Amino acid sequence: KPYLSMSRAVTVLLITDKMKSSRGLRFRFTATNSRDLCNSSTQFQCATADCIPRNQVCNGRFDCPDGSDEKFCRNKRWSQQLVTNVTCGTPAVEPSVEVADRIVGGEEAVPHSWPWQVSLQMKNIHPAAHFCGGALVSNELVITAAHCFMGLPPSNVVVKLGSHNLVGNDTGVQIRTIFSYAQHSSFAEHDMTHDVAVLKLSFPVNFTEHVRPVCRPGVGQTLPMNTTCYSTGWGATRGSGNSFLLKQARLKVRNFDDACANILQIQPNLRSNYTVCAVDESDSAGPCNGDSGGPLVCQLSQQSQTAPSSNWTLVGMTSQGTEVTGSNTLCGMGSGTVWSGVIPNRRWIENALRSL
């Protein structure tokens, strides 16, 4: 998001996290005599400071990333016009499914190959306000982890969709606020068994090549042991890669008692039958700080009415790592990672999505 200063000096406050990756920071600035970001005679300035042609205002389509071009229209035609026949779990850009590089958090994903990935960001902090991920499951609904909102009102969060580089100039990015929010009533900090939450966006999104929904599991679908799945997110890399670029990690579903039981040292009340345990077999990749709430997706062998077997299906949301020593961060360096299971929480999720 660009800023236009009316003075010759700008004060920038840098807010960092506790991960010491020593990546440094980057600023871009341009000197200008203009006091407007957009040409007011031919362009409309979005609330995000993006410029669009004036003839795109109130045309029934969200052309501004945040939908502000349709916000004050008398005839809100978008509610009917935005319904599209996009099949869930089908990226327009094919993801790479080869073995990952040795980067904490995984390898860089092919841009826009996981189009349901969303970034939850703090309002009014730019450009890198990302703190959690999530998965788009319809044109206005997102599934994430409940712990992402501990002590944080949803009104302080924006949802960014269609991104690959969080600090770059990606085209096709869409931004929404949260209209309503629900978290599992049994979720608690001392018992993260049901670490799941659902969000309804302030406006529906446009389905594009960069923004598409993932499938939700159907009735009767299961997640067999040793299934290959992929986790995605913008988590920390401890200096081994660029965490502003979307990354992916290839993982195998494992038995909880064999690969994830360590988590019971800090979560003794956790009920494993509501979770998914998965491990990166190369001991080099896995979710890390900033990946929480992000999707774990698989191509399940059983077909259902909502998820054909060849389509990508959401099976988990990143919840917590099993490494309970050291810096106590969510960094899967070969250790198991626990996801909140979508299949065991399916009934609550479906009811919550209908009620929002």
TrEMBL record:
Molecular function via GO: serine-type endopeptidase activity
Domain Peptidase S1: 103-354
A Pfam family reported for this protein in Swiss-Prot or TrEMBL: Ldl_recept_a
Keyword match Protein transport: no
Bilayer-spanning residue ranges: none
Disulfide bonds: 46-64, 58-73
Signal sequence segment: none
Keywords, sorted A to Z: Disulfide bond, Hydrolase, Protease, Serine protease
GO BP, one annotated term: proteolysis
InterPro entries (UniProt xref): LDL_receptor-like_sf (IPR036055), LDLR_class-A_CS (IPR023415), LDrepeatLR_classA_rpt (IPR002172), Peptidase_S1_PA (IPR009003), Peptidase_S1_PA_chymotrypsin (IPR043504), Peptidase_S1A (IPR001314), Trypsin_dom (IPR001254), TRYPSIN_HIS (IPR018114)
SUPFAM superfamilies given in the database record: LDL receptor-like module (SSF57424), Trypsin-like serine proteases (SSF50494)
PANTHER family referenced in this protein's UniProt entry, alphabetically: ACROSIN-RELATED, HYALIN
Name of the protein this chain belongs to: Putative serine protease
Species annotation: Amblyomma aureolatum
Classification of source organism: Eukaryota, Metazoa, Ecdysozoa, Arthropoda, Chelicerata
